[in-house]
Amino acid sequence: MAKPQQYFVGVDIGSSKVGVLVGQRGDDGRMEVVGRGLAPNRGTRRGNIVNVEATVEALKQATEEAEVMAGVEISQAYVGVAGADVRSVNSRGMISVTRKDREITRQDIRRVLEAAQSAALPSDREILHSIPQEFLVDEQGGIADPLGMLGSRLEVAVHLVTGNVTRSKTLLTCVNRAGIEVVELVFEPLATARAILTEDERELGVLLIDIGAGTAEYALVLDGEVYHSGVLPVGAGHFTNDLAMVLRTPFGEAEKIKTHHGCCLEGMVIDDTGISVPTVAGGSSRVVPKRELAGILQPRAEELFTMVRNDLSKHGFEDGPRCGVVLSGGGAQLEGLLEMAEQIFDCGVRYGLPRGLGGLVDVIGSPSWCTASGLLLYGLSAEESQERSRRRTLSVRGMMNSLRGMFSELL
User: Fold this and answer.
1) Distance (Å, whole) CA 340 – CA 4
2) Which domains does the chain have, with CATH numbers?
3) How far is CA 19 from CA 41, 46, 118, 177, 379, in A?
4) 191-237: per-residue pLDDT in tens?
5) Smaller CB count within 10 Å for the chain: N or C?
6) Cβ atoms of residues 239 and 256 within 8 Å
7) pLDDT of 134-162, one tens digit each?
8) In this structure, are residues 108 and 154 in contact, taking their beta carbons and an 8 Å threshold?
9) 3-state secondary structure (DSSP) of residue 50
10) How many CA atoms does the CB half-sphere of 125 hold within 13 Å?
11) Which whole-number Å values give the CA distances from 82 to 46, 71, 176, 336, in the listed order?
């Protein structure tokens, strides 16, 4: 088998399934998908693990399938996290530049980022990500990288994503028990954004909404960075549950009805053909018009998008996304969701699919694989960043060794 470090692995632990992707960096630097594993998961609810044994078993099953397809042994992975308890907040940090020449160094940048992360957090929470939005040098803003600039005061605005310590440890335990070391826990919307957003969307402004089985995660991206994000305890499973409760039909039957006949916008239902709906306890079936199904699903869709819109307004983003909305996740495939989002946000909406990858693209070409694909790209970007840092270090060392050689020759 090939060496594990030659491969990247993304693990998406959802409320209904576990998805595992294996990727390899090609000669052109592009990520090539070489393996995929999928297994049903009954161990999580609303993004949080409620049954460790069931989650571990699903992880093992999905991992083994991906290993067979890729022909590698998985030992490390980037793992997505997106429970309903994930919280985000914007913070700022400020330091004085102490060098006599006032030139800003890497150390100054590290110090100001640490200052921004020093906001008091409850003891049960930890920082998952600290995302710089912009730097300010002597009150001049809009700076992406202040290295080498001159100034006496350095500030930074950051987006902090925090998670529950106990739940993060539970997630780590499950992945470790499945025989996998976690390279990094990644907030899922950050990974998904890498897989489906275009550069223009990231720069001009776009809202990403990832609808899973138990939760919906969202991130507002402006000027290339995340300015707001959140998680709602509402997902595709709630649409199914609404049908099951109102129609008094088993959950499994409700899922089939939603998938094959469901629409969450009554105005889109032209063919009002009746659907045979089984009842609980083996009772006789009854016929329900498609328009009635839409009347059950529509309020939940309105609730979901209205909650996101209201949260954006609450945090000062009343104007909404400039480039529109991008929907992803398995739950986003419900008919009428795209049109409903257009009405609520009053802008263009499109479905997001994994992009920027090669290899088994036909196998993962659906919204369900956006997060796992993004985790591969996140890992690739992280490694490339580390490689650039190592090259800079080696370059500096080489220059210092050359200077030492010059001075030794003069002695």
Assistant:
1) 44
2) 87-159 (3.30.1490.110)
3) 10, 16, 35, 17, 16
4) 999 999 999 999 999 999 999 988 999 999 998 899 999 999 999 99
5) C
6) no
7) 999 998 988 989 999 999 999 999 999 99
8) yes
9) coil
10) 17
11) 9, 29, 18, 25
